[in-house]
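User: Could you check the structure of this?
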Amino acid sequence: MAKSTFQGYVRTYGGQDRNSGVTPGTLVASEVITFLSSTATATAVSVGATVNANAPFVLPQGAIPTNFIVLTAAGTSATATINLGSAANVTSIAQNLLVGAKGAALMTGSSVVGTGLPANTTVFANVGSTNGTGNVTGVFVYTFADQTAQPGEIGPA
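Assistant: Sure, the predicted structure tokens are below.
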């Protein structure tokens, strides 16, 4: 399968013409990430389904984390939790996020705001209040702050 990467936001008019007057909505993005569920030391999470320090997960400036979908749960405890955030504040995206069972959990940290992250952010994880064992793999879902909501065809003056 071919891959395509580009710099701009992807927005939709919900099937309507761009001149219809509706506000274009920013589409969500996601990435499969993996991290250890038992480490007390904040460690960069890895892109993909294996822990690999050579492929850290970096969110772009303006990203708004929304939720995490656990695909491979932490072992030992159904109540295992982890923290997600930046190197400076490992709970800034999520604190005590439940990863002991498959399911979705909302991001509620202090950096989850409508304006999005103020800078590119490498995501770190460490154990929350309840240890798990093994790796956790899941889908990290985020959207973007699109402050102008202007059609992409309209450029700066």
